[in-house]
Write a structure and sequence with these properties.
This protein is an all-beta fold and about 170 residues long. It has no helices and eleven strands. A five-stranded mixed sheet has the order 3-5-10-7-8, with no helix packed on it. Strand 1 and strand 2 form a beta hairpin. The relative contact order is 0.29.
């Protein structure tokens, strides 16, 4: 028997109001094809700022542009690490999706490339990398990485924020 109902948030004298911890269909971030844009990081170079931090309080789809910036003759694979820290007493899981054979504008939403499903109170971390096809197939290996933060259990909503940190070029 649960000691709390994660779908109810107290609002003072007016009584409880239902809060949706899951994806909010039809709204920004509520589906992969409506993911919120986090910006861009370099996947193969080390600029002075190569980290993005984002906070949320419910399940959400996000994406980040991981750019190919090293165009030298030697190959430099692209990579990204995402770290999710949830609020105490809540459990969120982290899923990353990328299509290495896609194009720089392909959103991948079907096949997980990496995941982390640790228990409540533990940090979730997932890392992905893909080949720089510099020599065999000279093209732009920039990719959109889709990120799903999924509520599993515990309280969510206002005051129960999770934090996501995305870092590029983590080889």
């Amino acid at each position: 028997r649960a000691l709390f109902d994660s779908s109810i948030t107290p609002t003072g004298d007016s009584g409880p109001v239902a809060t949706t911890c899951g994806m909010k269909a039809g709204s920004q971030g509520g589906a992969c094809n409506m993911a919120s844009d986090l910006g861009s990081v370099s996947g193969d170079s080390s600029p002075s700022v190569n980290t993005i931090t984002f906070t949320g309080s419910t399940s959400q789809w996000l994406y980040v542009n991981v750019s190919e910036d090293s165009h030298s003759v030697s190959e430099s694979d692209l990579s990204l690490k995402a770290t999710l820290t949830g609020p105490g007493g809540s459990n969120y899981d982290l899923y990353l999706y990328v299509d290495p054979s896609g194009t720089p504008t392909t959103h991948s939403c079907q096949t997980e490339s990496a995941q982390s499903t640790n228990a409540a109170g533990m940090t979730d971390e997932a890392t992905i990398s893909w080949d720089d096809n510099q020599i065999t197939q000279p093209n732009d290996d920039t990719r959109l990485v889709s990120i799903k933060v999924e509520h599993v259990s515990g309280p969510c909503g206002a005051g129960n924020d999770w934090s996501l940190t995305v870092v590029g070029n983590v080889k």
